Amino acid sequence: MKRILLLITTLTVLLGMSNCSKDKSSALITPAATTVAPHHTEARALYTGWPETFESGTKAAYADAVVTLGTGVWDLNDALIGSTTSDRKNGTKSIRVQNTGTITMNFDVNGGASQVTIAHGVYGTDASSTWQLWYSSNSGSTWTQTGGTTTTSSTTLSVATYTMSVSGNIRFQVRKLTGGRLNIDDITITDNSGTTGGGGTGGGTVGGPATRDDNMAMGNPSGASTTNANNYLMVKTQYTLSYNNSKGEANWVSWHLSSAWLGSATRCDCFTSDASLLSSYFHASTSNYTGTGFDRGHLCPSGDRNGSSTDNAATFLMTNMTAQAPNMNQVTWEAFESYCRTLTTTGNELYIIAGWYGQGGSGSNGGTTNTIASGAINVPSHFWKIAVIMPVGTGDVSRVTTATRVIAIDMPNTQSVSAHTWDYYRTKVDAIEAATGYDFLNNVSTTIQAVIEAQVDNGPTS
User: Fold this and answer.
1) 125 with 20: CB under 8 angstroms?
2) What per-residue confidence (pLDDT) applies to 20?
3) Are residues 173 and 238 in the same domain?
4) Residue 170 DSSP code
5) Do residues 242 and 224 touch, judged by C-beta distance below 8 A?
6) Together in a domain, 44 and 181
7) Is the pLDDT of residue 8 over 70?
8) Same-domain check for residues 176 and 251
9) Are 410 and 425 in contact (CB under 8 A)?
10) How far apart are the first and last CA of the chain?
11) Are 66 and 188 in contact (CB under 8 A)?
12) Residues 391-449: pLDDT tens digits?
């Protein structure tokens, strides 16, 4: 299950080959910062087809060789594409580098770069390691280091963020320096073409192009972490979620939606068990839903992540699936999903979080079902969703005001739910907090939360 925030969440890095370092006066460089979740600069656009997730390639040996990946041809020297349980990864694969290996783009992107993010973690029980990111503006003839030296010491993927201001053609290289084996995953490049506006944070600004932003920017409502099996934080490029091992499904999934996430990739219908989930946890499979009367219902929709085939496939990981009554999933729930996407066509971006509460739903088999998969997967009694809507801009959290439109819905998990349109189920955020025990939008000022969470949206529905 690859790909994230790591926009949020937040993502990108690569290694080098030559020791020739150019004069750094040609670029403005900021040292890398390592975070636990991806964060993308909001003023520029991610290159189409990125992040590079390493899911599409195969290389089983460390010997120097080129491999064709989703973004282009890469050279992996003293590095391979790993897929074992000891490889730290989002999805099923990541790069594993040993000794002083390198990961190099054998192609350029032509709009420069303002930011690169890269997920990294310690392979297995190996020692910590150090590495650097280098770039070339002359097709690999010479290389310049960007940022400082990054140390990888955690077996949980973190994200190193490098900011810069380099125009024109550019390619990147990751250079491992010391220590044990290193996993590298989900490399993202944000362009610096000069046609998409400048940076800017502060109080935030309205306008500019739509971008892919932090999937959990509005907050972590349950305080999910990587140490709690029933509130287990999983940061992916396409969305962030809290997994509940005792319930066999996500408590909630959070994602950013803008036109930058949308494209023409076809729906893959490739339901897949999530290999990035800890091996000791329950791993749902598509067969767990067969004959139950319930759909494998997406929390983050397929239609919200069709910018690339990789993005779309990530939404079909089983950690993003819940047991939804068919009429709810295919009719009323889907109608609200579609409405949210229409808002991106009129200059808006959205922060959405969806989940469930309770036990006992009524699917196409009739009656009430409490669990499926021999009790491993809970069948919720209700599904909820919260959408924060604002004009495209920067500094999104700081732009939320008491006038920001927030839509909250709460639907029963039944076949009869489709007797009403989605707007019938609008409610207060406060009401969903009371039902779940979560604290939504907790990155927003508490005084603003008090206003927007107490209101029921009465805005347009189409």
Assistant:
1) no
2) 37
3) no
4) B
5) yes
6) yes
7) no
8) no
9) yes
10) 33
11) no
12) 998 888 989 999 999 999 999 999 999 999 999 999 999 999 999 999 999 999 999 99
Domain count, the chain: 2
* Distance set, CA 460 to CA 28, 336, 422, 446, 454 (Å): 45, 12, 12, 27, 19
Backbone angles phi, psi at 312, to 5 degrees: -65, -40
pTM, two decimals, is 0.60
Confidence at residue 204, expressed as pLDDT on a 0 to 100 scale: 64
| In a domain? residue 185 | yes
Same domain flag for 46 and 116:
yes
In this structure, are 240 and 355 located in the same domain?
yes
If asked whether residues 440 and 335 sit together in one domain, one would say: yes
Structure tokens at 217: 């920017």
Identify which of 380, 366, 301, 286 has the alpha carbon closest to the alpha carbon of residue 334.
301
| Cβ neighbour number for residue 57 with a 10 Å cutoff | 18
pLDDT at 1: 41
Does 212 reside within a domain?
no
**Is residue 298 flagged as an active site residue?**
yes
DSSP class of residue 63 equals S
Q: Is the pLDDT at 28 greater than 70, yes or no? A: no
The CATH number for 405's domain is 3.40.570.10
> Phi and psi (nearest 5°) for 136?
-130, 135
Locus of tokens 């044990």: 180
Active-site residue identified among 256, 298, 382, 420? 298
For residue 425, give the 3-state DSSP assignment: helix
Domain limits for position 94: 24-190
**DSSP category for residue 225:** B
What separation in angstroms does the CA of 363 have from each of 289, 366, 415, 419? Answer: 11, 6, 6, 15
Complete DSSP assignment for 257-313: E-GGG---PPP----B--TTS-TTS----GGGGTTSS-EEEESS-GGG--SSHHHHH
Owner of token pair 């919260």: 386
pLDDT-above-90 percentage for the chain: 72
- Both tokens of residue 120? 């990294």
